[in-house]
Amino acid sequence: MAGEEVEPNWMTPYKNFLIWGELPPNEDEAGRLKQKANYYVILDGKLFKRGLIAPLLECLNSQQENYVMRELH
Length: 73
Fold this sequence. Notes:
The chain is 41% helix and 14% strand. It is of the alpha+beta class. A hairpin with a 7-residue loop joins strand 2 (46-49) and strand 3 (57-58). The longest helix is centred in the last third of the chain and has 11 residues, at 62-72. It is globular, with a radius of gyration of 13 Å.
């Protein structure tokens, strides 16, 4: 699979907040990000989503997502 993503994607705001504490300039977006970030964790530089009963799930960018979907089908 491909390495680390180079361009920003949906995970970028979560990583920026969890690693550096950076929030978006919009207060509404910042509030939503703070709430949703509680479900995510960074391990070895990768973003994972945690659930109540599920193990940690690795978050994928669109390129990785396409690869996984092709392999599964």
